[in-house]
Amino acid sequence: MSNTPSHLDLVFAYHNQTKHHFERYANGPQHIEWENQPSGFRYYEGTQQIELPLVADNISTQFKDLYTEPKQSYILDFKALSGFLELAFGLSAWKQFGDSRWSLRCNPSSGNLHPTESYVVTNDLGELNAGVYHYVSENHILEQRGIFANSADLKAILSETQFLVGLSSIPWREAWKYGERAFRYCQHDVGHAIATVRYAAACFGWKAVILPQYSDAELSQLLGLNQTGDFHENEIEIPEILILVQADSQQPTSNYNKSFSEITQSIQWYGKANLLDPQHHYEWPAIDKAIEITEKPTTKENHWAAPQLPDLPTITDFNAADLIRQRRSAQHFDGHSILSLDHFYRMLDCTLPRENSHFWDVFPFQPRLHLVFFVHRVDGLASGLYVLARHDSGLELLKQQLQHPKFEWKKTDSCPEHLPLYQLVTANAQNAAMRLSCHQNIASHSAFSLGMLAEFEDTLQTGTWQYKRLFWEAGMIGQVLYLEAEASGMRGTGIGCFFDDAVHEVLGIQNHSLQSLYHFTVGVPMEDSRLQTIPPYAHLDQQRQQSVELD
User: How many CA atoms within 13 Å lie on the side-chain side of 305?
Assistant: First the structure.
């Protein structure tokens, strides 16, 4: 009998190896040389660059309408695609302090390092020929990475109302700062990016859905990531996910099942990836192993049928594009502001997939994550520890695995019936939240913070590639909370640094059935008046700064 560890054993080993503990942190670089930070923007040198118009200022869609049947659908054309990319992956602002300046984007990232790269596969569309394009947020351009020898080949698998978005990760961008744990953060960022794709699509009245059947090898072939000679050895991109975006809201997306094997053979590739970091003082074999053992094969998956739930509570009107671009990660909270109970319950409600949702339909899988709340300052809700089950059978699992003898499991009286929010302990939870989140005050000075518990072992038994999907779901929940926090007059922050097993100990978790994957916190931010905010594309020439009206 072979003693070779299975991929499942190796995923458990990676996950355990990259946990933070009170007495030690996961392996990372001993010194961080900020002046040698990897470039935040990937370019393909030697490609044709297509300038995109700025459109977002002229999108009238309201934020509250992003979760409902669209009131209007924009025609898919060059300008609309440009606006979609601007809201999904574009810059939202620049910040400046003294001589230092850094960009912010609509899709957030751990440490603002942005390992996620985005690609578009489209038919002929205005200035674009049928091909594979790489998006560069810095100057809002598309790079013509791959061209199909015969555009009719692509038309056979994509209608004129559809295009594909491919996401990849550059692990080195995160590993440079975070070491072995960086693979986790790359996957968080992919989840946030999936969510920004769905929100951006909803701004145009479009649908979007993950295409889960394709293998990583197929994605690499379609996006040109298998062209290894085009990348520096230590700065490879790994394939993550393919998303179908569709402008025709009446056409179903669930039956899309096209093969790319033949058409990818005819793609002519152009360009070489720029060098992001000439130093590379550290290498992390654990990440290389994680990439290997989570590689996804071709699969056949059925879409999960989300339950019927009441419509989301109404919210004050905000322009969707404005709200998406004002999202920031708070650095400090004021420590005293109170969140209204209605806003708190709406935030929870928005994390629940539902049959009539036009957000969670992008992620057609049964939820595997549940939420544990450290409530500090929510009007009408006692401070303490709470838990929210995000699907029916999840509550039974939580009751089985959260084995602390003092847990009360009391249904919250004021909570809407369909929200399974249970109070575990009434107590001041600020110190516990702060200590568990790597001693960060943002977890205790907020209105609330939370941990995301994944159905870990059972999910991975179905395929170790599901490890990444669990983090994607966590990132999507985080993006929902980011935007809902902004809509409530507050601000959110994702927390990737927490003491994994200490969280489990507080909750009474004694095995791998549940694992905490991501923390998040919401409160009123303290603004740093020393920072200057600069419009996202003020560095472009005057003509390109003008926002273009949609037809």
Answer: 1
Q: How many residues does the chain have?
A: 551
The residue among 138, 116, 140 whose CA lies nearest residue 193 is 116
Q: DSSP code of 39?
A: P
Chain center to CA of 424: 29
Both tokens assigned to 501: 């097993």
Instruction: Kindly report the pTM of this predicted structure.
Output: 0.97
Kindly report the CA angle at 200 between 197 and 204, in degrees rounded to 5? 130
The secondary structure of residue 443, as a DSSP letter, is: G
According to DSSP, residue 551 is labeled: -
Q: Tens digits of per-residue pLDDT, 353-364?
A: 998 888 999 999
C-alpha to C-alpha distance for 38 and 172, rounded to whole angstroms: 8
In whole angstroms, what separates CA 349 from the centre of its chain? 19
Q: Across the strands, what pairs with 133?
A: 120, 144
**Intra-chain end-to-end CA distance of the chain, in Å:** 67
Dist. CA 440–CA 200, nearest whole Å: 32
Q: Which residues contact 86 (CB under 8 A, 6 or more apart)?
A: 52, 54, 55, 56, 106, 140
In eight-state DSSP terms, residue 543 is T
Express each pLDDT in 153-207 by its tens digit: 898 889 999 999 999 999 999 999 999 999 999 999 999 999 999 999 999 999 9
Spatial CA neighbour of 54 closest among 82, 76, 18, 78: 82
- The span from the CA of 84 to the CA of 87, in Å, is 5
In the numeric block, the tokens 């200057």 are attached to 532
Of 472, 459, 461, residue with least CA distance to 515: 459
